[in-house]
């Protein structure tokens, strides 16, 4: 039976970073990386629309959810500067976009993956693709791992870096069952950073349209969070980065609602004044064109209908109350929300192994010594903008360094 000092399950962001950090200390023949897909970093290649927003200079606990208070010490220990130092050591140059988001200098996610995997190879990491791990069992002196191909390996230490359930074409969440089998709890899992489902009838006709707005998430009529950005209308859902961030804040029973302010720089009185001026200056213009000079054309037409106006009616025949209704809709267009979209449309997983079950300095399990957990397997998820990848890098660095230290202190397999 093969024996290894460290075996890592999963070659995503956290797994590659942890493998590099461990092998850098231990050298060739000590660290094995097992990946169920045919190649490493498939999800990493898709991040940031292929540009890879790999961290954020504002990576503070307030931008995370779940056990974020417990995560604070680790985030302080591995700030963005330390993560970027690691990438620079691999030869990757990065740049910041002026709003805190950090990208590879060439804006290619493939460059990030190449830097990681090349650095792993140089450090002596061994890897096997198409090797999904189906079981991990605690054994005397380490862990027995079994793969779908029937391989059995003995590792003195095991790092679970298998990712979450979001985007199941990249990972399906097998790591959660492996963690449970080794004594860990897993909190309820749900999609996060996902579109928000809504039964609003107007969404079907608005499919494919986009509009700049301030989007506010309301629970039982009270504002929970609001964020500005481009909102995308889909058949049965709202999406866009600002909506994704709202989805991360769906906590507790509803009813939930998203309200869109399509004129966030104007007061409602200013909007109404504009509409009245338009009526006065263009009395023969069709009501259907009331908002054509102000909003996305199809979005404007839909709002005219929702205001109860006949599209062919001349503006001169529209009363003040109807214009007031249109102004209110522009400033607060409400969409009932029934929950986040499916796993296929989500970027990250909400929930996971509680942080209280791991040592936050090392990411080592408190329930199973020699086991380490990283990234999306843990009950921490971040906003859009590089926060989730930063968590993957930070936990990977911490776990890889700790496993290497432990390897040096004791006998190898």
TrEMBL record:
It comes from the Bacteria. Residues 5-401 form the RsdA/BaiN/AoA(So)-like Rossmann fold-like domain. It holds the Pfam family HI0933_like_1st. The keyword Isomerase does not apply. Residues 190-348 form the RsdA/BaiN/AoA(So)-like insert domain. Keywords: FAD, Flavoprotein. Its cofactor is FAD. InterPro entries: BaiN-like, BaiN-like_dom_sf, FAD/NAD-bd_sf, RsdA/BaiN/AoA(So)-like_dom, RsdA/BaiN/AoA(So)_Rossmann. NCBIfam families: aminoacetone oxidase family FAD-binding enzyme (TIGR00275). This is Aminoacetone oxidase family FAD-binding enzyme. It comes from Candidatus Acutalibacter pullistercoris.
